[in-house]
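Private note to self, pasted from the team thread so I don't lose it. Backbone tokens:
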């Protein structure tokens, strides 16, 4: 996506320090998502809603919020291609965990921008996760 990644490969020394800090935050969020994914055990049905809320609030929310922060307030943070891929994977790892809380295996592949647009409309991370994944189904 044009404007989301740096136009050329750059080392952290060549980048704006604020952009480097955003990259560090992406790497931290990605590490948390990997750890959560490797330690994940699906909850019992009685705890599915609460656990799914945690995945949305503590995982999807911070990933999407970081992207929104990077795109608002007059700034246009350029992520490296690797950072942008990590942010994308982080979002989708959390969305996959969210659906697994309900017993649904989903190989999520949503863009961070798509998730940000939904969050800005709903103002709710759980609604964002549900609208993107369609889990649980709305009646």
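Design output:
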């Amino acid at each position: 996506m044009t404007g989301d990644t740096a136009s050329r490969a750059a080392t952290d020394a060549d980048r704006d320090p604020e952009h480097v800090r955003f990259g560090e935050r992406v790497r931290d969020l990605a590490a948390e998502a990997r750890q959560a994914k490797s330690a994940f055990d699906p909850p019992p049905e009685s705890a599915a809603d609460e656990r799914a809320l945690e995945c949305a609030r503590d995982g999807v929310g911070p990933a999407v919020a970081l992207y929104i922060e990077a795109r608002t307030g007059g700034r246009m943070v350029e992520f490296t291609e690797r950072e942008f891929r990590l942010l994308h994977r982080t979002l989708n790892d959390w969305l996959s965990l969210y659906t697994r809380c309900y017993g649904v295996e989903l190989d999520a592949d949503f863009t961070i921008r798509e998730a940000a647009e939904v969050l800005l409309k709903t103002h709710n991370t759980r609604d964002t996760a549900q609208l993107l994944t369609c889990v649980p189904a709305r009646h």
